Amino acid sequence: KIAFLRGLACDDLQKAFAYFSGHGISDDNLILELQEEFSQERLLLIDGKSITPEKQQHLNSLESPQNDYRAVFAVDMLNEGWDVLNLFDIVRLYDTRDAKGNKPGKTTMQEAQLIGRGARYFAFHDPNKPDRIGMRKYDDDLDNPLRVIEKLHYHSQHNPRYIQELHSALVSTGIMAEQYIEVEENLKEEFKQSRLYKSGVIFKNEQKEIAPEEKNVDGLSDTIRNKRYEVTMPTGQQKSGDIFGRYAAPELTAQGRATLKFSDLGENVVRTAINRFSELHFDKLHALFPSLTSIRMFMQDARYLSRIQFVVIGASDEIEIGKMSQKNKLYVATEVLSQIVPLLSKQEKQYVGTTEFKPADIKITFRDHKLRFENTHSGEQIGKSMNNPYNTGYHLDLGTRNWYAYTDCFGTSEEKELVKYIDSIYMKLHDKYSEEVWLVRNELDFKIYNFEDGKAFAPDFVLFLRRKDGENYDNLQIFIEPKGTHLLANDQWKEDFLNRIQGADIGMFTLKGEKFNIYGVPFFNRDSNRPEKLQNFEAQLKEITGLTPNPNFLYS
């Protein structure tokens, strides 16, 4: 059976089999382990019409390390109100359909909702992605090995009509996009044969935890204060109707959104909500924030709760702060605090980015990528090939550009404009740095860490330049980040960080007799309404490389 499955296995199973083989796990041992993991005492059979309190408790604690159940057989169950983080597979054990008039039936909609619950929860936090807490992290990076931890598999008999109905239900509920495109972004063979790839290095810094005696915690972290919180108000009503597609009942789908702050809810309400959480008792808070003097300070000080914003979703006449009942205010405060409390444990650790940059091999750092993008059929550039001659305004045949490391670029319009900018000054670069000119796209292959708080940042590009200097070589490594105008303010910390990476001050190294200078430059942005952005970028690039800017590029 195992040998037979090896020949039919999908990509994830093939990787699993390779892992088993690499760790000396034979087929016989694998069978024994599976039999143990899925033995009868680790299977839970539940029926929605006759579930016992004991089984209900087991069902609601599947995430607990002490819960040994590995599979749940459900009959008329799990349709609503069941949340679990560690759901990886759903197996459909029946083959009936109840679609009518080319619309998904009730059973199909329930299955779509169950898939949605499994797909929308995220079971782990990646410390390298502090800005993706509670969000999927690897959907667009198909080759990332951690992607399997966020993947849900749905198994059913081969029934194309049912699969199409299920797909329609998933699209109509917003769980998945109608279409995706998958592309390959591979390193060029000529780059793999280059000196830079074979023996070159990239310098990057590290994230370092601050020792307890060095911590200076005087408020909630930026991650907590700036996170997007949402609360959906319970309606307290029951209505029926179709909420999907063009036949949607407006009384069921019409909802308003209001952005509020804790200070809007009233001190008594917030204090009552705080009292519901043992983690927010003053002794616990004071241990995290030694400068905190009272619960009132925790509620009123801008460094803590008072200015945290959250979006309340519900009936328009119920979410206006002037019309909201005290009961609903308490509900909102409690719901937002329930989202904040799990993040407090991360307050205990503080980080900085080291000012020392260490070399890492290029050939280990950068890799081929399989990427996936939502096909929006819009004018957005993300996911579109630069090699495509019909990509008006952004076309560049990267196959003929022997300075670009990858076969194509599928990035944003700003990223493609940066590639075209480098193309416009390439001959000047090559004249001065004749040994090596390479622009390498960073598809989350590496990160650098902000000096002040250790926040991770993956610059979109690195420009490598190399020239002969007498008997030795000079090497430049320049971090470049194209940035859309709509993101400039929010990502200002990234530009500040890049501007602090300046050669002799921080990034000058000697390795095997060769000199290396590491630089960051201001954001690349060519918005005609913000000409100073491109001017700042070009001025810094000129100072680093000694090249004159391209005066015609801004409006070309």
How are the elements arranged and paired?
Blueprint: H1 2-8, H2 11-22, H3 27-37, E1 43-47, H4 53-59, E2 71-75, E3 89-91, H5 106-120, E4 153-155, H6 160-172, E5 180-185, H7 189-192, H8 195-199, E6 201-204, E7 207-209, H9 222-226, E8 229-232, H10 250-253, E9 256-261, H11 262-265, H12 267-274, H13 282-288, H14 295-300, E10 309-314, H15 316-319, H16 326-344, E11 351-353, E12 358-361, H17 362-365, E13 369-374, H18 413-432, E14 436-441, E15 448-449, E16 456-457, E17 461-469, E18 472-480, H19 492-500, H20 503-506, E19 508-511, E20 514-520, H21 531-545
Parallel strand pairs: 1-2, 3-4, 8-10, 18-20
Antiparallel strand pairs: 5-13, 6-12, 7-11, 9-10, 14-17, 15-16, 17-18, 19-20
Helix pairs in contact: 5-6, 12-16
Describe the fold and architecture:
The protein has 556 residues and is α/β, with parallel strands linked by helices. The N and C termini lie far apart (63 Å). Helix 5 links the parallel strand 3 (89-91) and strand 4 (153-155). 23% of the residues are buried. It folds into 3 domains: 2-183, Rossmann fold, CATH 3.40.50; 184-207 and 353-545, no CATH class; 216-236 and 243-349, no CATH class. It is built from 21 helices and 20 strands. The strands form 8 sheets. The protein has a 5-stranded mixed sheet. A 3-stranded mixed sheet has the order 8-10-9.
Which structural class matches the secondary elements?
alpha/beta
Count of DSSP strands: 20
Measured between the Cα atoms of the first and last residue, the distance is: 63 Å
**How would you write the strand order of the largest sheet?**
14-17-18-20-19
% residues in beta strands: 15-25%
Contiguous uncertain segments of 5+ residues:
236-254
* Major β-sheet annotation: 5 strands, mixed
Count of DSSP H/I helices: 21
The portion of residues assigned to helices is: 25-40%
**Averaged pLDDT, please?**
83
